[in-house]
């Protein structure tokens, strides 16, 4: 893909799924990569695959919730490559459980990783992206950042927050005339390990829910998702919907307004009983 040659791109959560596919596609397109994850085994696989195609790659263990470590990491990436052009704040986790049975710690953990991880990545890299003269921040929200579903209140809250934060940031960069583009990503169901890696509230069947996600909801490959995301980045899109499911449901939500809540709470239990 054109437009990425010579750019230094940072990808969090690059040891699996969408992050791994983004890193590989960016590498193929000529970018230099700073990849990170808490999962060092997955990260090592991404690193090996990038090295095998001759990509200049720096791989580090990083927990996106650890703000001081993230700052040190950003400084290290800048020192290593001399500049930073793009950050893909991709690392994320899932949790299922109705509000009534979710613990505060469950909700806080999702906000810590899925929202604060994105805020940390944005803030620590922003000065370097401005300095580069050609920056881009790509924040991964979700289709669940466009509408809410029962059992996903914590994840919905984090992903709506990412969307709000990122959409404001894009306008701020334009107003300040900073050379930093900003894109929010809303994937539909992508064939990754996210559901298998997820946690659930007490009493729910994690394995059954993960299996239902893998079989019924995950439709798009991470490789295709990465191509769609990078095409949107190249075109400086404000928002990218990934997958036919994301596009269709976005339209339904826009047509029905708040009416989707009545519709989904009636229809969803019939479509995906194990999720409830
Ligand atoms: N798969 C989907 O259907 C889907 C849909 C919408 C949005 N998303 C979002 O896409 C992003 C990528 O998810 P994925 O589907 O590739 O899942 P995945 O589980 O395959 O990959 C996520 C990666 O993030 C890493 N990670 C988790 N917590 C971390 C932390 N605290 N610090 C650093 N790394 C951490 C994991 O180790 C893993 O390698 C997430 O933000 C997710 O919410 C996924």
TrEMBL record:
One of its GO terms (molecular function) is oxidoreductase activity. The keyword Iron does not apply. It comes from the Bacteria. PANTHER family: OXIDOREDUCTASE SADH-RELATED, RETINOL DEHYDROGENASE-RELATED. Belongs to the short-chain dehydrogenases/reductases (SDR) family. The keyword Oxidoreductase applies. Coiled coil: none annotated. Keywords: Oxidoreductase. PROSITE patterns: ADH_SHORT (PS00061). This is Acetoin dehydrogenase. InterPro entries: KR_dom, NAD(P)-bd_dom_sf, Sc_DH/Rdtase_CS, SDR_fam. Residues 7-193 form the Ketoreductase domain.
């Amino acid at each position: 893909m054109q437009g990425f040659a010579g750019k230094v791109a940072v990808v969090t959560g690059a040891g699996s799924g969408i992050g791994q596919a983004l890193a590989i596609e960016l590498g193929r397109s000529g970018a230099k990569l700073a990849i990170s994850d808490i999962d060092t085994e997955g990260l090592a696989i991404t690193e090996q695959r990038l090295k095998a195609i001759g990509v200049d790659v720096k791989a580090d263990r990083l927990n996106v919730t650890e703000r001081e470590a993230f700052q040190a990491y950003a400084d290290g990436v800048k020192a290593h490559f001399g500049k930073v052009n793009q950050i893909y704040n991709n690392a994320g986790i899932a949790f299922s459980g109705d509000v009534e049975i979710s613990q505060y710690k469950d909700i806080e953990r999702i906000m810590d990783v899925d929202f604060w991880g994105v805020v940390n990545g944005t803030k620590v890299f922003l000065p370097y992206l401005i300095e580069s003269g050609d920056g881009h921040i790509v924040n991964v929200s979700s289709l669940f950042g466009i509408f809410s579903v029962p059992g996903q209140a914590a994840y919905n809250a984090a992903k709506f927050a990412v969307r709000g934060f990122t959409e404001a940031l894009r306008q701020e960069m334009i107003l300040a005339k900073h050379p930093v583009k900003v894109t929010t990503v809303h994937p539909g169901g992508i064939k990754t390990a996210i559901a298998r890696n997820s946690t659930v509230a007490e009493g729910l069947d994690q394995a059954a829910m993960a299996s239902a996600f893998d079989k019924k909801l995950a439709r798009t490959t991470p490789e295709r998702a990465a191509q769609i995301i990078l095409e949107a980045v190249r075109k400086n899109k404000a928002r990218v919907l990934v997958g036919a499911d994301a596009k269709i449901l976005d339209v339904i939500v826009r047509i029905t307004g708040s009416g989707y809540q009545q519709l989904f709470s009636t229809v969803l239990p019939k479509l995906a009983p194990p999720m409830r």
